[in-house]
Amino acid sequence: MKRAATVLALLVSVFVLLPNGQGRFTVVEATIPALQVAMAKGQVTSRQLVEQYLIRIATYEDKLNAALAVNPAALREADVLDRERAQGKLRGPLHGIPIALKDNIHTTNMPTTGGALAFAGFVPPYEATLTKNLVAAGAIIIAKTGLTELANWVAGNPTAMPGNYNAVGGFGFNPYDPRPDPRPEPGDGRPVLQTGGSSSGIGTAANLWAGSVGSDTGGSIISPANANMLVGIRPTIGRISRYGVIPITADHDTAGPMTRTVADAAIMLGAMEGASPDPNDAATRTCTPPPGRDYTKFLNAGGLKGARIGVPRAFYLDRVTLPGEKEPRGGLNPEQAKVMADAIAVLKQQGATVVAPADLPSFVATDANDSFPVFDYCSGAEHARGKDAQCTVAFKYGMKRDFNAWLASLGPSAPVKTLTELRNWNMAHAKAGAIRYQQSRLDISDEMDLVADKARYDADHAKDHRLSRDQGIDAVLRAHQLDAIITPGGSGAGVASRAGYPIIAVPFGMVPNAPNPPLPPGFNARPAPFGVGFVGAQCSEPKLLELAYAFEQATKKRVPPSSAP
After folding, report:
1. What is the number of domains present in the chain?
2. Is residue 233 domain-resident?
3. Is 338 a known active-site residue?
């Protein structure tokens, strides 16, 4: 399907005249509002937008490996939407706009594989609620993006799966430096510039579609948004229905938009959210949508004036020695610290009151039982049964519970029926590449006993909330009467995801890509994007959008990647 659509893309025309006849309309860096205005004025049709994006996919896909499937009906769908527009019928704010979905989100016109070889070619029997919502808003689902396999819950230590690798499509590459790592170790062809978490921001950054939807359990929207110079929103859990999204754990999973601007992200967020709670996802009762699900009314360029923004220094900016440990952790290198200092200066220049330090109590706790960084999630073979006393089992327990429930929802069409069957299938197909990095995370999940281990899970889930909410985000916001806290790069995603609270990533700067051990002499590594995150309380997306938009408008630091002009 992907190859056929790519061939089709090579055949279509993109010669779309601008109204003055002096140039050609281009989708490159075009925002969703700009695309809508162009279609409304008759400067371009939805079909012509799709044609241009298909040409870009065909041009850059071999270099970037951004898509696992391309919608073969995209042009026909665009024609339908163009006819509706001509008749005066607009479905919603995304009418005629091509959007891509992470390939763990159900579509019934393309496979949904999660990147797992066992699901290669699998078309689920029902659509995700968010897919239906996007289509109802007029979106064309043009492609399914690459991802770290099963949202990065296949292989942790000792052979951790690299970011944006999956058995179906291989590695995805960052458009800001789309080359493989030249070092002999690990020597597996992974990208030299990290792509971030399990959601691919690659195609959005490279203008292969107008925006994309990722999913986030522990940072997989915010981290790739940061790494690909994008705006990413990890919403409050329940803001967007998770029904029809391959899960890790419902305790922490959520979908969210990834775009090139805050305004585009606001538009997509409203289109993804349901007008009423989804009966298939009880968490959708958590937050009340704004009137008309219109988040664009919160886009206030002066929104930083009078705002109170906290800067947590401990662990985020400064290295700290955690209770029971000898070596310090966290902090920024000098180049990252300079970017963060510049960002804080912008906040002050725009009239915000900056409270620094505004440390989260669970990050400066002297008792290990009260330390958020010490209580990480169990994530590899070193956290197997009997070795997991010092980490939260919420992820590995929730994965077995929710993944098995998801498989059951597929009915007889499911390629495997249980997590155990998937593990066995992977082992039987190891020579075919099913488990290049083994499957330690699937292993530690499958050994959980959903009955006998429930008390331990309940205790760890409660502790997660205590450290991330009561002694974390809620505590620091309340103590300093803050509207939000600002965190460097993608680092704020961890505490936000464990709390189930929103965070918005905004592009801001670039820093050197200087891994350890170093790259070989003569290899000119290109710089890495490095932005900021705005973290807020439960259901505070409207306020965070106001702050993020004001920051973006005051800086406008995003630059497109030169490798995909």
Report:
1. 1
2. yes
3. no
Active-site residue among 2, 46, 102, 543? 102
Instruction: Give 152's contacts (C-beta < 8 A, 6+ positions apart).
Output: 161, 163, 197, 198, 220, 441
Amino acid, single-letter form, for residue 376 = D
CATH (domain of 68): 3.90.1300.10
The verdict on whether 102 is a catalytic residue reads yes
Please answer whether residues 165 and 148 qualify as being in contact, where contact means their C-beta atoms are separated by less than 8 angstroms. Answer: yes
Catalytic entry in 200, 212, 220, 371: 220
**Residue 375 neighbours by CB under 8 Å, 6+ apart:** 390, 391, 392, 463, 464, 467
**pTM of the predicted protein model:** 0.95
**More confident site: 20 or 516:** 516
The span from the CA of 246 to the CA of 347, in Å, is 38
Domain-located, residue 96: yes
Q: Find the farthest-apart pair of alpha carbons in the chain and give their distance in angstroms, rounded.
A: 71
Which pLDDT score, from 0 to 100, does residue 563 have? 81
Residue 24's pLDDT band, with cuts at 50, 70 and 90, is confident
Find the domain containing 128 and state its range.
2-555
Both structure tokens of 277: 């709670």
Residue from 62, 508, 137 nearest 294 by CA: 137
Over residues 58-105, the pLDDT tens digits come to: 999 999 999 999 999 999 999 999 999 999 999 999 999 999 999 999
Active site residue 220: yes
pLDDT band with cut points at 50, 70 and 90 for residue 20: very low
Neighbours of 526 (CB within 10 A): 17
Beta-ladder partners of 392: 377
